[in-house]
Design a protein that fits this description.
Blueprint: E1 26-37, E2 40-51, E3 55-59, H1 66-73, E4 80-85, H2 94-97, E5 101-104, H3 116-126, H4 132-139, H5 155-167, E6 173-177, H6 185-198, E7 205-209, H7 213-216, E8 222-227, E9 230-236, H8 237-243, E10 244-249, H9 254-259, E11 264-268, E12 271-277, H10 282-285, E13 289-291, H11 295-302, H12 306-313
Length: 314
């Protein structure tokens, strides 16, 4: 998919959305958004923009605030700050918003008693922008039959039916919370192929939360990364390649690499690597060979698991 310009970032040194103009291409705009449950802030002062035609990965450890943020985007969680989705206030205009935005939560369930064709008929009556013909066309890409009952389908088939139903809505934004959780690798591959081939058209955008970072990295145009409720990265993959520098090196250069204070030091095939935010000095560059940092490397460098945090505080 063609990548456009970068998203603003909340990571230090990268511009935020504050004071920036919003164009007609913007589907989601968050400015200083916070969401609290009692005294705990699940999402803490988050700002970002999602333009049209993007596939955005929302990454973070369990408990980082991903699901809470997604719920706020569709009006299921009250938020402080300024939040606009498709030009609407999700809290006050949720019904109107859901005519043009689709949401599949991580606990999405289809009625086990229903046949697939009955679900299509149900959706036709519920949603004004649902196309039954398109749903049938999408299901032809799967091994699911229209007369099959949900209770006879595998988990992977149920997920594909859910995507086919959602993708048959003439919407501008799709929000997916761990849509392939618990599926085998073939089912996940089929899901993402259908998503990209049949829904992403350069005009609509997808926000997708997943733990299978390696599998979707090639599909993404942008990344939002949460750590303990705070946004630590909001950037296009093109700008990630420009901003972050990874150097592979042999053991003899390890101490000098460490002295340069990289974000992360990690093992790679045949040696070690160091990850830097920005271009390190020439003398450090000379110690290794530049390689492309993966999203997994960045994720490890910019976030930490909650259990690690608890151990350090103990």
């Amino acid at each position: 998919m063609r990548r456009a310009g970068p998203l603003p970032s909340a990571h230090p040194g990268v511009r935020s959305t504050e004071g920036s103009p919003v164009s007609g291409n913007t589907l989601v705009e968050a400015r200083g958004v916070s969401i609290a449950y009692g005294s705990k802030r699940a999402v803490d002062d988050v700002s970002f923009i999602i333009p049209k035609g993007r596939v955005v990965g929302l990454l973070g450890h369990n408990g980082a605030g991903k699901t809470t943020l997604m719920k706020a985007l569709v009006g299921l969680a009250p938020a402080l700050g300024d939040l606009s989705v498709l030009g609407l206030d999700p809290g006050r205009q949720r019904v109107e918003l859901l005519e043009s935005a689709c949401y599949i939560p991580d606990v999405a369930i289809l009625p086990r008693w229903a046949r697939v064709d009955e679900l299509i008929s149900l959706m036709s009556g519920l949603h004004p922008r649902f196309s039954a013909e398109r749903a049938r066309q999408l299901l032809q890409r799967t091994s699911v039959g229209l007369k099959d009952k949900v209770r006879t389908l595998s988990k992977g088939m149920v997920v594909q039916v859910h995507l086919a139903l959602i993708a048959s809505i003439d919407a501008r934004l799709m929000i997916l919370d761990e849509p392939t959780l618990g599926l085998d690798v073939l089912s996940r591959k089929a899901f993402y192929e259908m998503l990209v081939d049949e829904w992403c058209d350069g005009e609509r955008s997808v926000l997708i939360s997943t733990h299978q970072v390696e599998e979707i990295e090639a599909l993404l145009s942008d990344v939002l990364m949460l750590n303990e409720g705070k946004l630590v990265l909001s950037l296009s993959l093109e700008d990630i390649d420009r901003r972050f520098v990874a150097l592979s090196h042999d053991g003899a250069a390890a101490d000098r690499m460490a002295a340069a204070h990289p974000l992360l030091r990690y093992r790679v095939q045949g040696g070690s690597a160091a990850l830097f935010d920005g271009m390190p000095p020439d003398e450090v560059m000379a110690l290794g060979q530049r390689v492309r940092p993966s999203l997994v490397d960045l994720f490890v460098a910019l976030t930490r698991a909650p259990e690690m945090h608890r151990k350090q505080e103990a």
